[in-house]
Amino acid sequence: MQIYNFSKDNGKKIGIFNSNFIMSRIIETNKGAHIGCMYLEENGIIGYHQATIPQLLLILDGEGYVCDEKKEYFKVRSGDSIFWEKNEWHETKTETGLTAIVIESEELNPSLYMPKKHWDVSSVSF
Hints:
The chain has no helices and ten strands. By secondary structure, it is mainly β. The chain has one domain (about 1-110): Jelly Rolls (Sandwich), CATH 2.60.120.10. Strands 1, 4, 5, 6, 7, 8, 9 and 10 form an eight-stranded antiparallel sheet that branches. It has a two-stranded antiparallel ribbon with strand order 2-3. The radius of gyration is 15 Å and the shape is globular. The two termini are about 20 Å apart.
């Protein structure tokens, strides 16, 4: 499991075509990709399972916890993205709710565009 940051602070100001916005690049793929939006309500959970394909989870709103195959939990919030390789065991849960976009594709390399997140605290146990 790798955790990245796609927040506004890591974006680039775009001014071409009289534009005025910040773009945080996330991923590029030459192979097909499945993209979906997940809504976890209070005490929501994406149960512990093995990734059938590389997965990138982008937290848009709210906060929660993700774990790796060691069952070590890490707190994530809006602006964080979590990458799991194919066959990696993982889980996502929230006490207060979160909204996330999931991108699944055989060809994902989030480190091309997003910096890895630096942790202020160690993992959390449940």
